Amino acid sequence: MSCFELISESNSSSARVGFLRIAHGKIQTPFFMPVATKGAVKFVTHKELQNEMNVECLISNAFINYLKPGLGTISAAGGLHKFMSWDKSLFTDSGGFQLILDHFVHKISDKGVSFRNPFDKSIELISPEKAVHIQNSLGSDVAMCLDHQPAFGKTRADYLDSLIRTIGWAQECKKAHDSNENKINPSQLLFGITQGGTHADLRVKAAHAMCEIGFDGIALGGFGIGEAQSDLYNIISASKKVILKEKPVYVMGIGSPIELLNAISNGADIFDSVYPTRMARHGLIFTHKGQFKIDKSVHKNSFAPLDPACSCFVCKNHSRAYLHHLFKTHEQNGLMLLSYHNTFFITNLLKEIRVAIRENTFEKFKKEFELSYKSKN
Ligand SMILES: [Zn+2]
Q1: Does the annotation count 93 as an active-site position?
Q2: Domain boundary among 240, 273, 306
Q3: How far is the CA of 317 from the centre of ligand 1 (A)?
Q4: Which residue of 140, 188, 318, 368 lies most exposed, with the fewest beta carbons within 10 A?
């Protein structure tokens, strides 16, 4: 049975609402996952995510957890959900390796990624099979295949090379996942990841290959690293043409309001990104009238909320002047409040988008949101 159930489709775009059924819940798509790389979202607590923002799903990084605290501790706790005390849904990413551990990658070959362990300096090979077994031990609801993501701006030959390697690894990941009978989470799903940079033909080839291997869902990797927005939307659209309707499509690394709207308009269902919290830590605030920097002196004596149209705790209780003061004086509480607002803003935007798609007003909603977002504060 497919893990994805289609509920409603937009008349005038590829936007759609569905349900993703996974072990810890039934999540309405499209949805956005805040990133808990080490098991926690930076400056936002589980309580806030779960009780105040109704976040249904987080994504954590398998390798980071594997290195620290290590599988021994997480297995002793009963898996990553129990270790984190997070009983909603959880994805784990096995990639992001090159981005996170750039200095430590020793060699990438068809066998896998060998890296220098930053803690004990030993050289270790993460094969596709090992990447899957680590995630089997973590017990996430959705595990991701090991993929080879080249840096932005490489040649077509480099992207083709990484794509062929990624397909080979995907076949091995699938085999390892199917044959492991001792998963902590027996209903754990496995998603394949396409690569190919901004070359539509390579992306289509990758999507075909991933569909043929037979994954529960298809992810588009290698975005959010400097590509043109139009390339991103073209690739999603081209990939959707070869991916069966009953497969959920996950675009990794996308987290700005306008990109999310357009990716959804092209038919994407699932997203994750550090963008909202990372931008908050740099003082960049999302609002219905565009984004602004809280450190600008114009906010020093502004007693307005960050966004009058936002119903989050921070907007209801604190002024720009107060948040400007906390940010300028490097008060950690300021980073917490700004991260809270940006995460709430994105979570709430996705909620509004789902309603608009179901009510068949998505295109109108999108047009009005974009117009307002470009109007600037
Ligand atoms: Zn707010």
Answers
A1: yes
A2: 273
A3: 9
A4: 368
Please state, rounded to an integer, the average pLDDT across all residues of the chain.
95
Q: Ligand 1 centroid to 35 CA: how many Å?
A: 19
The CA distances from residue 95 to 17, 77, 100, 328, 348, in Å, are 27, 24, 9, 35, 28
Instruction: Confirm whether 56 is domain-assigned.
Output: yes
Check 87, 93, 158, 269 and give the catalytic one: 93
Distance 215 CA to ligand 1 centre (A): 38
The pLDDT value given to residue 68: 93
Residue 282 DSSP class: T
Q: How far is the CA of 318 from the centre of ligand 1 (A)?
A: 9
Averaged pLDDT, 157-172: 96
Within a domain: residue 173? yes
* Distance separating alpha carbons of residues 116 and 123, to the nearest angstrom: 4
3-state secondary structure of 288: coil
pLDDT tens-place string over residues 170-224:
999 999 999 999 999 999 999 999 999 999 999 999 999 999 999 999 999 988 8
10 alpha carbon to ligand 1 midpoint, in Å?
28
Dist CA 100 CA 351 (whole Å): 30
User: Rounded to the nearest whole angstrom, what is the distance from the C-alpha of residue 307 to the centroid of ligand 1?
Assistant: 6
Query: Catalytic: which of 102, 272, 295, 307?
Result: 272
What is the whole-number distance in angstroms between the Cα of residue 1 and the centre of ligand 1? 39
Same structural domain, 97 and 246: yes
> Does the residue 353 lie in any domain?
yes
Cα 102 to Cα 244: distance, rounded to the nearest angstrom: 35
Looking at the structure, do residues 164 and 211 belong to the same domain, yes or no?
yes
Does residue 376 carry a pLDDT above 80?
Answer: no
- CA 148, 140, 50: angle at the middle one, nearest 5? 115
How far, in Å, CA of 205 to CA of 194, rounded? 9
Helix (H, G, I), strand (E, B) or coil at 86: coil
Domain around 330: 283-374
